[in-house]
């Protein structure tokens, strides 16, 4: 019997449901109060069920290099609040395992995920099976970055600028963060197909973490 698993913007484990778009956690359809940082920690751990997520990776994802915080205290507090929300005893973890001085690992079962394979395979543009999946950004012509419009209006404006070879207009869109310069290889979660040529994704890594953008399927490769 197939599991409902990951739908667009939704992760499920045990009796919990994580809504990535709204930043909400539900337990048996009852909303659980969870602050932003504990929510982000859970989201990151659910990207790699069964794998160790290092403290350094969490630091990089949650606190940019120019942010000055007591990292150890802040991360420990976020994990403590997350465990409280999940009703978990840290000495008998059902979901989040602590590996001393190394990081954390999600040990529950995430519906619809397959952690046995991490290889990337091209997305079929006509298929809907990749909705909700994690993918890597692929740049064409061996470029280091992929340029991602944040919405349909910006996409249409960019297409006009490309047709007119207007590099100045394109630079202005990038400067205003309406087009994001995202390094190739960054992971995203595919949320929905907005048209035959573009789908909406949430960025899962780097400078533009958690932002939404539009990506052609040809620039995506499924992970797992």
Could you explain how this protein is built, in words?
Helices cover about 25% and strands about 30% of the residues. The protein has five helices and 15 strands. The protein has a six-stranded antiparallel beta sheet with strand order 8-15-9-12-13-14, with no helix packed on it. A hairpin with a 2-residue loop joins β3 (about 25) and β4 (about 30). α1 (about 35-45) crosses α3 (about 70-85) and α4 packs antiparallel against α5 (about 165-175).
Quick gist of this model?
25% of the residues lie in helices and 28% in strands. The protein has five helices and 15 strands.
What is Rg? 18 Å
End-to-end CA span? 20 Å
Helix content: 25-40%
Strand content: 25-35%
Q: N-to-C SSE series?
A: EEEEHEHHEEEEEHHEEEEE
Number of strands: 15
Query: What is the strand arrangement across the widest sheet?
Result: 8-15-9-12-13-14
| Class inferred from helices and paired strands | alpha+beta
Q: Looking at the structure, what is the overall shape? A: elongated
Q: Which stretches are poorly predicted, pLDDT < 50 over at least 5 residues? A: 1-8, 112-127
The number of helices is: 5
Overall pLDDT metric? 80
Can you summarize the main beta sheet? 6 strands, antiparallel
